[in-house]
Design brief:
Order of helices and strands: HHHHEEHEH
Radius of gyration: 18 Å
Shape: globular
Distance between the termini: 6 Å
Strand order of the largest sheet: 2-1-3
Oligomer: single chain
Helix content: 10-25%
Number of strands: 3
Length: about 170
């Protein structure tokens, strides 16, 4: 049904998409299994710690409305990229809209107080505008982390971009 999620959707891991070069509209058959949280959610922890999920043990709950579990939180024991860069005198800033990367889950580590901004599901334009407004305050060298949620379903591109690609194909 296009990009809109539906009851009949199934999760296909990126590993399978790449291995079988799957494209939108491809028919997939086989046995269904439950999605493992480690298939999708701990990517940010891996980026921030340069370690694999087997090492950082971050596994987010996949049930909407679930409270954070102990395994959802990035432990203070792991040095994050912002902490490493802060130790090298970088001025660290973060602007992000992804609920999975908020401070409650340990992802504000290494960002000074007041330099980690979270606005749940804010559009990319808003996140970018916030970052650009603070740019004059950033002292080189600086690390700016901006995380967007716009590519997630339901994806609503700005009208100018939507026109470039024409109407959505039907499946």
């Amino acid at each position: 049904n296009g990009y809109a999620p539906s009851q009949g959707d199934v999760y296909v891991s990126q590993q399978l998409v790449k291995a079988f070069r799957l494209r939108r509209g491809d028919k997939v058959s086989g046995e269904l299994k439950d999605m493992k949280p480690t298939d999708k959610f701990p990517a940010l922890a891996s980026i921030f710690t340069d370690t694999y999920p087997e090492t950082h043990h971050v596994e987010f709950s996949v049930e909407p409305g679930d409270k954070a579990h102990k395994s959802d939180v990035l432990a203070d024991a792991f040095e994050t990229l912002p902490e490493y860069l802060g130790g090298a005198c970088y001025d660290n800033w973060a602007f992000q809209a992804n609920d999975n990367g908020k401070a409650d889950y340990g992802f504000a580590q290494g960002f000074p107080v007041g330099r980690y901004a979270f606005e749940e599901f804010a559009p990319a334009r808003t996140i970018t505008d916030h970052a650009l407004a603070k740019l004059p305050e950033m002292k080189p060298p600086f690390f700016l982390f901006a995380q967007y949620v716009d590519p997630h379903a339901p994806y609503t591109p700005p009208p100018d971009y939507k026109q470039v690609f024409g109407p959505e194909p039907t499946v």
